Amino acid sequence: MIANEKGFSLIEVLVALVILVIGLIGVFNLHLVSKRGSFESFQQTQASYIAQDIINRMKLNRGLLTAYSGTYAGNLSKPATACDVAVGANVVCTVNQTLAWDLYKWEQQMLGSAEVNSDSVKVGGLDTPTACIRAQANGNVTVVITWRGIRKVSDGAASNSDAFVSGCGTASDRRRAYSVNTVII
Question: Nearest 5 degrees, angle CA 92-CA 76-CA 137?
């Protein structure tokens, strides 16, 4: 008597599982690459926003334009007078107080102090940011923001022909850089 067996053999099932696992590993790796790229893009968008923010602050305090020049890495202490312009605010600040407040708030934005996780760790800013401002009396302004990326690539500022840009931040194969040249009149 010859039996006609119907169904899958154990070898066929194992081969199908191996093919499925290889496909799932590929999908998982694609997901990881996508998340890294999304995070790098978010960091660059943040740097752009932060650079534009300080430029707008400088426009509002044009009298002390050159005083904004310097290197900033989140080390400024909070000024005694908060010069935020808010609805119903009754604070009148001098230009020097405004300068100190602008730089402090700007550094806090770079560090992401407005967004903290459940462990009170700042999560909304750039990773180890350094910002450099070169403001000249004629209104020429260069703002450079560097931060640490998550992937090793080439140094984001080392190849720049402007020594001011390439000198901002710590040289590294993870350094990213965003720079803006503008004129404030």
Answer: 70
Mean pLDDT of the chain: 90
Bigger pLDDT: 183 or 85? 183
Q: What is the pTM of this model?
A: 0.81
Mean pLDDT of 6-12: 81
Q: State the Cα–Cα distance between residues 13 and 48, nearest whole angstrom.
A: 53
Fill in the DSSP letter of residue 122: B
Interior angle at CA 140, CA 74 and CA 41, nearest 5: 50
Instruction: Check the CA dihedral 120-124-129-133 and report its sign.
Output: negative
Per-residue pLDDT, averaged over 37-53, amounts to 92
d(CA 144, CA 6): 70
Burial zone of 148 (CB within 10 Å; 0-12 exposed, 13-18 middle, 19+ buried): middle
- Positive or negative CA dihedral for 105, 110, 111, 114? positive
